[in-house]
User: What shape does this take?
Amino acid sequence: MAYPIARQLGSPLDVLLMQKPLRREVVLELSGTALEGELTRPEGCRAWVIFAHGSGSSRKSPRNTYVARALNDAGFGTLLFDLLSASESVDRENVFDISLLSYRLAQATDWLKGRPEAKGLPISYFGASTGAAAALQAAAEFQRDVFAVVSRGGRPDLAMEHLFGVCAPVLLIVGGEDHGVMGLNVEAESRLQRARLAIVPGATHLFEEPGALEEVVRLATAFLSECLERKGGSRHEVA
Assistant: This one.
């Protein structure tokens, strides 16, 4: 599918273009810090997913990009962005500063809510590794209206004291061979109000094994679709 470059709104033609799919590079100005990102809205967009990458990664993470493209095909808009500037990421303390990262994610959420491309649609998070901790903390402290959180190989232990405050349903995806992280996610499941643990057999932390990332896509797409459907009117809980 071709993704035309979006223009500044200002005419009926621009409003018409807002109904078309788009993919564009963006710069998020968050508290004086410029962070680069990529915004994609598919045709018939029904909700948004903001990605939070793990330590040592960026918005160009091949695994998150793969998942994002699959979610686009399923009708979800996506925002991938760098949680830290280039100069900030040099300091390893920033990479593991979950409070800073969660605040940045919350700011990015407000930024997206204010964009015409978002059209007032509901927003969710997809976090990987330390990014999952940032997503959970942001959902607990700043953005309680996110409709779902998906964690891939997450480090929820880095936000453990905030887990009780997460109101959104959470999917914890863990590799069956990621033994250390497995225990952390089992503990997190017991602390979250509405959580589901999904184990991908044979997968390690990066889900590099054949078919592992495809299973992550399947699980995440089904979960987000279910949460979105229930948000739209059902009284049943996602647990």
Notes: Confidence is low (pLDDT under 50) at residues 1-18, 233-237. The radius of gyration is 17 Å. DSSP finds eight helices and eight strands in the chain.
